[in-house]
Amino acid sequence: MFQIPPVPDLNNPDLAAALADKIARKTVPHGALGRLAALAQRLGAILGTTEPRLHAPQLVVFAADHGIVARGVSAYPSDVTWQMVGNFLAGGAAVSVLARQHGIAQTVVDCGVRHDFAPAPGLLIRKVALGTQDASAGPAMTAAQCDQALANGVALVQGLPGNALLLGEMGIGNTSAATLLTARLGGVDVAEVTGAGTGLDTQGVARKTAVLCEALAANAEATAPLAALAALGGFEIATMVGAILQAASERRVIVVDGFIASAAVLVASRLAPPVLQRCVFAHQSDERGHARLLAMLGAGAPAPQGIGPLLDMGLRVGEGSGAALAWPLLVSACAVLNEMASFESAGVSDRA
Fold first, then answer.
1. What is the pLDDT of residues 38-62, one digit of tens each?
2. How far is the C-alpha of 310 from the C-alpha of 53, rounded, in Å?
3. 188: CB partners within 8 A, 6+ apart
4. Across the strands, what pairs with 58?
5. Spatial contact of 145 and 234, defined as CB atoms under 8 Å apart
6. CA dihedral angle for residue 63, residue 68, residue 71, residue 75, rounded to 10 degrees
7. Cβ(245)–Cβ(4) under 8 Å?
8. What is the pLDDT, as a whole number, of residue 198?
9. 267 and 27 in contact (C-beta within 8 Å)?
10. How many Cβ atoms sit within 10 Å of the Cβ of residue 91?
């Protein structure tokens, strides 16, 4: 059985006070840094210091196929999954361009793609099976397969350098899996969170919703987080959950991309709630259920923590593209905290 890595509570009133005081002394009107200040405080809290520094960021694209695609829930066939893996490795995908632009290392992980890849730089083979089963007819994976995927995610992060993990994914049909997990673990009507995915029209979304209702009914007993993950999720989502838990245990900054990555965080946070203390949500995507899911995670706009999703650009790309796009904001937050002068050091009067 999968052993959840320890994820302790990061609550540290002394550190929080020191970070707030450091930001308050910066040479801007009080409160003028807005959400950038909140982001800097979050990064300091995650890394346990008033001088947070990000190094060797790792963007991991978790890839797998989904049996439920046979039911017509996607506008694209499953072959697009393995074809896009090739595009990532060739550097031609949106996330590849953005990762390269910002100096972020990209790794693609075959968690369960219905294709056999030749060895290639930047590719890790952690295949559990050639795609999941059709969740509308029963569990997508066995408990043993789910445990294997989770363990693969843990081991993957243990082998990565750096102190920041950016989450990406690829898998035709994975908005269906994310929608099912959101509905089941969030207790919402699946129709309220079912979106267009890869570009379904209105009729296609209605068909997808009906199939997802069948999947929930076929797996009605799978209500606990791990049971729901096995019954309704995908190999890439399960591997991502393991990676999130290990990254949280190692106190890495976890940069969450869109709907699918957020669904993985939902599962991980139900297993270890302090996971959310390590997360920075890159953006609110245009996928219908994402705003609702962010609200479940306490990261809606506006968020109680004062950060919320960093960007809202109508993206529906996936891949980790939103995480890579938001990355410079994290770098800037650290730079402002570490390098910006204080009123005292600059000899500027603070009239507050």
1. 999 999 999 999 999 999 999 999 9
2. 19
3. 182, 292
4. 105, 165
5. no
6. -20
7. yes
8. 80
9. no
10. 12
Is this model's pTM higher than 0.90 or not?
yes
Written as six digits, the tokens of 305 are 């923590």
Tell me the three state secondary structure of residue 164: strand
Spatial separation of the C-alpha atoms in residues 207 and 182, rounded to whole Å? 18
* Cβ neighbours, 10 Å, residue 245: 27
pLDDT at 71: 96
Tokens 């052993």 found at: 3
Query: Minimal CA–CA distance to 205: which of 263, 140, 288, 264?
Result: 288
Q: What local confidence, expressed as pLDDT, does residue 301 receive?
A: 65
Taking 50 as the pLDDT cut, the residues of the chain under it are: 304
pLDDT of residue 351: 64
**Nearest Cα to 46, choosing from 279, 297, 256?**
279
Task: Give the integer Cα–Cα distance in Å for 105 and 121.
Answer: 12
Q: Is 319 a catalytic residue?
A: yes
**Phi, psi for residue 53 in degrees, rounded to 5:** -135, 130
Which one of 169, 236, 287, 319 is the catalytic residue?
319
Distance CA 55, CA 58 (A): 9
Please check whether residue 334 is in contact with residue 52, taking contact to mean a CB–CB distance below 8 angstroms. yes
Q: What is the pLDDT of residue 16?
A: 96
Strand 105-112 relative to strand 123-125: parallel, antiparallel, unpaired? parallel
